[in-house]
Amino acid sequence: MFETRVLSGMRPTGALHLGHYHGVLKNWVRLQSEYPCLFFVADWHALTTDYEKPGALQEVGADMVVDWLASGVDPNQATLFVQSLVPEHAELNLLLSMIVPLGWLERVPTYKDQQEKLADKDLSTYGFLGYPLLQAADILIYRSRYVPVGEDQVPHIEFTRELARRFNHLYGREPGYQDKAKAAVKKMGSKKARLFNELRTRFLESGDAEALKRAQALLDEQQNLPRGERERLYGWLEGTGRKILVEPDVLLTEASKLTGLDGQKMSKSYNNAIALRDEPEAVSRKIRTMPTDPARVRRSDPGNPDKCPVWPLHLVYSDAERRQWVRQGCTTAGIGCLECKQPVIESVLGELAPMRERAQAYLDDPTLVKNILADGCDKARKLAEETMREVREAMGLSYL
Ligand code: TRP
Ligand code: SF4
Fold first, then answer.
1. How far is the C-alpha of 125 from the C-alpha of 136, rounded, in Å?
2. Residue 296 CB less than 6 A away from ligand 2
3. Hey, which of 261, 326, 345 would you mutate to test ligand 2's pocket, going by the most ligand atoms within 8 Å of its Cβ?
4. Which domain holds residue 56?
5. Which of 288, 337, 342 maximizes ligand 2 atoms within 8 Å of its Cβ, making it the mutation to test the pocket?
6. What is the pLDDT of residues 342-392, one digit of tens each?
7. Residue 263 lies in a domain
């Protein structure tokens, strides 16, 4: 249905680290060759929790994009842009705010969770309550099909789906809807039209999911039908109004196995992270000074990898043979901790070296990143405008 667009956003929070790479960015790099992808700097989202210290959002944002590019996100494949440079997100946010029940926002689990967790921040603002709505606008404005996010964001995508349904229900039933749908089916040619009608009946009467899929596939092929008519038919097929907004699905991003230097989740705020652009000396030092199994006080004490924060690094960076060498050597005190860490240091340095190199080109010439974002914003705005034109029309706001 439509183009299978993938969209994801990231708040600008400062230098990205290996946890981001193994969790999110590697995934983006894979997706960009499989789907048309849109990735954006969620700068307005940063303000929903940190309006008091906006810092230099534009610098942090551009710097984050350097980290994306360093990780292999390719501006020739994916569209990279900045949320605040596509003000249509705000317009859709406003229009959706008219129809979103307050209870839906208050029920989003992150609302209460975050207020409790981030007790030092003032989160009793309209912006913070509305943050899932802004996220829904980000997603719906591109008619995104898939949204790669972590577990914590799943309720936001579910919220987005419900909102899209509500919108289509309210505004997708134009006058003469039935007749218009029937006329559009005829344009498919008599054979396909008959098949389409048959499949539709099968789905509506017996909930045959296979029939629905086949009918959708049939519509996907009808590139000669104008988009508005196809939208109408996607909705009509399922017995609903015209599908102006598309319900997205989650592409669940598995949490990275990589933990921080202290064995907790890797996070800048825990001060246990290896940043993607850390100097090689800093990387080596951080790993060399990592704590190990506390039971291994002396070199001659045997240890247990399961109690050591270095082990998760081996799980990411070492093959079976090397892991066996670690287990064997650790539990028999056959190897020392520095010896055990050395291959990890080399693997991490090997992984980061090409990133540093790619990043350097962008640091040497900051106009490169500016141009990438300017291009990306242009492309994103065109797509956003397409949706907004239909949203405005559906809500009775197309004056000119
Ligand atoms: N809320 C996401 C986060 O905090 C970031 C985000 C904003 C996002 N808009 C989005 C993610 C749209 C996916 C799609 O991580
Ligand atoms: Fe940890 Fe390796 Fe030392 Fe064992 S040998 S305690 S796994 S660093």
1. 18
2. yes
3. 326
4. 6-172+246-254+365-394
5. 337
6. 999 999 999 999 999 999 999 999 999 999 999 999 999 999 999 999 999
7. no
